[in-house]
């Protein structure tokens, strides 16, 4: 059953016509369900016995791969792994197919020097691979989460977490197995390809799947930035790889890796939207800083970020659709990511609505076709103003609470901002140059607040976390007249 689970860690492949008998992938999916059902059936005591029996074989990996952009000075680098030791030749009577060797590849030869001495036999390597997968499944399904995942995520089994998979809070819980299992899974994802650990081996694909499934358990013990960049590297060319797959045929290993990584990214993003958004935004800022410094050399992670733009936008689109409240909380960071992923020339030519319509559903996002500026209202009461041509951003402060709506005047000379928290609407004047741009080229626009009005607060239609996203919007009827339209149809008219 474990072998079948190893071979089917990724989501089910393309569906087969109903006239065909059950495919191997369908059988493998059934094996996954049987394994989880058995782990639930044996209960907490049975899972404890299983953990006790297999924890001895869990490799004690150390942090050998650092987060992209970090230096080794902040944290001492682990000793380099010893040279691959000769593997014991199995007896002729032992049966070992290519798939079995693929499963166990990479599970032994990279242990640190101070690890327990373990036999290099094939059987021991099988036990190590089984321990990683079995403890990974138990941790992902039954381990304690640092906080419940948000949104509509997969159902998890409740009850007390198994010993070794507890929380870190309070200092009394035992989380050693969660940490060691996380390190093993992360190692298998990030370890560079080698003859003993091919780039698309079964054990690597299994680790990818378990990282996505149990991210809320592993998050405290992993380098989130390194993991996300590793997954993006695998699915950067997912569209091309999956497009070449013939309907009804099994996925080849590279396509299966891309599909597994894509699925893991979706699971991670929907389980922890702030972690995904802030991490990718940090990588974007690091990339932009490196590009601004002509002396810096582009590294593999910035290359990965550039190649994975389509995949990043796909995940952002999922978050906007499923978890808009979390996106609004970090709307400026989300716009930083979008501005990086979409070429400014394309936005200038087609407009933001056509390039990425999902972000335009928020009333606190506005785009000016004439000046090619994007305004984004933040939760802190500030407004981020982006220049599409240069990618530069300027922050303006004029409210004491979250921004409810923003909108540019048709001629681009005024920007209206409204905050229901402080019950004020403000108008900002912008200097328009001869070419239609705001201010001078490569300089910050000259902004000043010319008028502020107090308006009655708008009450949500009903209690709920999403109702504040649609409280009111701003509609310009001319270059100097605007309507504040509440969700209940009430209007407040203003003139600049």
From TrEMBL:
WD-type repeats, residues? 396-431
Q: Which domain of life is it from?
A: Eukaryota
Region entry Disordered: which residue ranges? Answer: 67-97
UniProt-recorded name of the protein: WD repeat-containing protein 7 isoform X1
Residues spanning the signal sequence: none
What GO cellular component term, any one, is given?
Answer: cytoplasm
- The answer to whether the entry has keyword Chloroplast is no
Give the stretches traversing the membrane: none
Q: Name one Pfam family in it.
A: WD40
Lineage of producing organism: Eukaryota, Metazoa, Chordata, Craniata, Vertebrata
Q: Which InterPro entries match?
A: WD40_rpt, WDR72-like
For this UniProt record, the keywords arranged alphabetically read as follows: WD repeat
| Keyword Glycosyltransferase annotated | no
């Amino acid at each position: 059953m474990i072998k079948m689970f190893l071979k089917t860690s990724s989501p089910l492949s393309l569906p087969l016509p109903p006239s065909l008998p059950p495919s191997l992938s369908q059988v493998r999916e059934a094996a996954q369900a049987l394994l989880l059902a058995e782990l639930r059936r044996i209960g907490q005591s049975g899972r404890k016995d299983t953990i006790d029996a297999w924890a001895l074989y869990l490799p004690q990996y150390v942090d050998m791969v650092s987060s992209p952009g970090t230096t080794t000075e902040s944290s001492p680098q682990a000793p380099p792994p010893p040279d691959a030791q000769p593997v014991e030749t199995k007896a002729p009577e032992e049966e070992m197919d290519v798939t079995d060797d693929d499963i166990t590849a990479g599970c032994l030869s990279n242990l640190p020097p101070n690890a327990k001495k373990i036999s290099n036999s094939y059987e021991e390597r099988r036990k190590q691979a089984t321990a990683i997968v079995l403890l990974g499944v138990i941790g992902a399904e039954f381990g304690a989460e640092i906080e419940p995942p948000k949104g509509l995520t997969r159902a998890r089994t409740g009850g007390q977490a198994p010993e070794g998979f507890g929380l870190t809070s309070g200092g009394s819980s035992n989380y050693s197995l969660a940490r060691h299992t996380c390190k093993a899974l992360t190692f298998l994802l990030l370890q560079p390809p080698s003859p003993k650990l091919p780039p698309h081996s079964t054990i690597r694909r299994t680790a990818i799947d378990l990282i996505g499934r149990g991210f809320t358990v592993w998050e405290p013990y992993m380098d989130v930035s390194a993991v996300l960049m590793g997954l993006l590297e695998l699915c950067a060319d997912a569209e091309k790889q999956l497009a070449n797959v013939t309907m009804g045929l099994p996925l080849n290993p590279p396509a299966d890796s891309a599909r597994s990584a894509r699925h893991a990214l979706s699971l991670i993003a929907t389980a922890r939207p702030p972690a995904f958004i802030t991490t990718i935004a940090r990588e974007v800022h690091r990339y932009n800083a490196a590009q601004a410094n002509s002396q810096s050399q582009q590294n593999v992670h910035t290359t990965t970020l550039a190649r994975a733009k389509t995949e990043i936008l796909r995940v952002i689109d999922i978050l906007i659709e499923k978890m808009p409240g979390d996106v609004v909380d970090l709307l400026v960071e989300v716009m930083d990511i979008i501005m990086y992923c979409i070429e400014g020339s394309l936005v200038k030519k087609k407009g933001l609505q056509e390039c990425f319509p999902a972000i335009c559903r928020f009333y606190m996002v506005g785009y000016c076709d004439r000046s090619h500026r994007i305004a984004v209202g933040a939760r802190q009461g500030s407004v981020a103003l982006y220049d599409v041509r240069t990618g530069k951003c300027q922050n303006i402060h004029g409210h004491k609470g979250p921004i409810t709506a923003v909108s540019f005047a048709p001629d681009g000379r005024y920007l209206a901002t409204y905050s229901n928290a402080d019950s004020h609407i403000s108008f900002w004047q912008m200097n328009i140059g001869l070419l239609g741009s705001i201010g001078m080229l490569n300089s910050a626009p000259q902004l000043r607040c010319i008028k502020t009005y107090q308006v009655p607060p708008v009450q949500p239609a009903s209690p709920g976390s999403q109702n504040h996203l649609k409280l009111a919007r701003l509609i310009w009827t001319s270059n100097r007249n605007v309507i504040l339209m509440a969700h209940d149809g009430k209007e407040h008219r203003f003139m600049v």
